[in-house]
């Protein structure tokens, strides 16, 4: 299937440049040009395009839409609307307010961490901090409460060390599987995603809980690094990657951009979600049999996630 053209704002900001996704994708780590695929009928008419690609444990979900602005002011206001995207609450590692409230259910993967790997994502060294907490074969309610509190403190200590290391080195260490997670920002660069301004150097860490559509996924606590640039009235761009994700994903990255074409009153929104899914690394028979369903679940949930993010920007267009 012939890929659609990807429209991004050139570094000179004028005019809007049409880039062939076919040529961009050849340089990606995936190496597959058919990243974007057309949707049928009504969705094509609305200038909405979606893409999904998977190779091994790496998956990417894309949403690209071009809309007609209500007027010049609406077009010029659109790039700043990218700041409406919700990345949780700032302040990590000093504050993890975006992870509250903690319930007995959300604490269970931590309190029941007895051996590596646990249900909560940690490296072997980090897990050892939790497993050394004494657990009696028979516990009173008070003893159980104390054990849960001790493991929770050990988890927060391991997390704090991970976040401080990231702020110093930008390094994101492994979890269960050996080898550093894929860097989504490098992948975004390789496939040719452009911004009028370079990505800022300073990290801004946010804590949040993500609840995906499918009830097969438990709520996911994340620490995200968000970088953002804005060329007023023309372009807003955001880069996001996880510093820590509690479940399922060894790496989570996002790139989003809102462009205004003032001459044609066009608003263009590009959103890409890039994931490294740990369940696709499992090689047992049952896991392999279910790899297809896992990929389908990511595509479905990824599309819902990007649609929700798009709506949160509240762009003023003639279709509204």
Report on this structure:
By secondary structure, the protein is α+β, with helices and mostly antiparallel strands. The protein has a single domain (5-92, 176-312), classed as Alpha-D-Glucose-1,6-Bisphosphate, Chain A, domain 4. 29% of the residues lie in helices and 27% in strands. The chain has helices spanning 21-25, 42-45, 72-77, 104-111, 124-131, 141-169, 184-190, 285-289, 291-312; strands spanning 5-9, 16-20, 36-37, 48-55, 58-68, 89-90, 205-210, 220-231, 235-245, 249-261, 266-277. Strands 3-4-5-11-10-9-8-7-6 form a nine-stranded antiparallel beta sheet, sandwiched between helices. A two-stranded antiparallel ribbon has the order 1-2. Helix 5 runs antiparallel to helix 6.
Please give the structural blueprint.
Elements: E1 5-9, E2 16-20, H1 21-25, E3 36-37, H2 42-45, E4 48-55, E5 58-68, H3 72-77, E6 89-90, H4 104-111, H5 124-131, H6 141-169, H7 184-190, E7 205-210, E8 220-231, E9 235-245, E10 249-261, E11 266-277, H8 285-289, H9 291-312
Antiparallel strand pairs: 1-2, 3-4, 4-5, 5-11, 6-7, 7-8, 8-9, 9-10, 10-11
Class by alpha and beta content: alpha+beta
Output the strand order for the largest sheet: 3-4-5-11-10-9-8-7-6
Name given to the CATH architecture: 2-Layer Sandwich
Count of helix runs: 9
**CATH class, anyone?**
Alpha Beta
> How many domain modules?
1
Give the overall shape: elongated
Assign a percent range to the helix content: 25-40%
Q: Beta-sheet strand percentage?
A: 25-35%
Main sheet summary:
9 strands, antiparallel
Termini separation (Å)?
31 Å
- Segments where pLDDT lies below 50 for 5+ residues? 1-45
Q: How confident is the prediction overall: mean pLDDT?
A: 84
> How many beta strands in the DSSP annotation?
11
Fold-level CATH name: Alpha-D-Glucose-1,6-Bisphosphate, Chain A, domain 4
């Amino acid at each position: 299937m012939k890929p659609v053209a990807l429209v991004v704002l050139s570094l000179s900001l004028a005019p809007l440049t049409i880039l062939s996704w076919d040529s961009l994708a050849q340089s990606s780590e995936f190496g597959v040009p058919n990243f974007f695929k057309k949707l049928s009928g009504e969705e094509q008419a609305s200038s909405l395009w979606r893409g999904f690609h998977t190779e091994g444990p790496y998956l990417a979900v894309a949403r690209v839409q071009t809309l007609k602005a209500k007027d010049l002011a609406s077009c010029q206001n659109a790039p700043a609307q990218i700041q409406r995207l919700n990345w949780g609450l700032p302040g990590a590692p000093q504050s993890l307010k975006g992870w509250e409230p903690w319930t007995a259910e959300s604490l269970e993967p931590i309190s029941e961490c007895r051996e590596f790997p646990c249900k909560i994502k940690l490296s072997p060294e980090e897990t050892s901090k939790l497993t050394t907490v004494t657990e009696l074969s028979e516990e009173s309610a008070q003893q159980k409460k104390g054990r849960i509190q001790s493991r929770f403190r050990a988890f927060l200590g391991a997390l704090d060390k991970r976040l401080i290391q990231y702020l110093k080195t930008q390094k994101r260490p492994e979890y269960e599987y050996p080898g550093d997670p894929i860097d989504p920002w490098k992948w975004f660069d390789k496939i040719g995603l452009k911004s009028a301004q370079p990505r800022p150097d300073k990290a801004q860490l946010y804590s949040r809980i993500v609840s995906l559509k499918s009830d097969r996924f438990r709520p996911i606590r994340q620490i995200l690094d968000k970088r953002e640039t804005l060329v007023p009235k023309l372009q807003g761009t955001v880069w996001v990657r996880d510093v820590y994700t509690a479940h399922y994903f060894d790496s989570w990255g996002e790139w989003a951009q809102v462009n205004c074409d003032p001459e044609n009153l066009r608003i263009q929104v590009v959103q890409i979600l890039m994931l490294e899914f740990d369940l696709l690394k499992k090689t047992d028979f049952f896991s392999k049999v279910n790899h297809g369903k896992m990929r389908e679940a990511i595509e479905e949930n990824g599309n819902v996630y990007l649609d929700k993010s798009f709506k949160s920007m509240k762009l003023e267009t003639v279709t509204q």
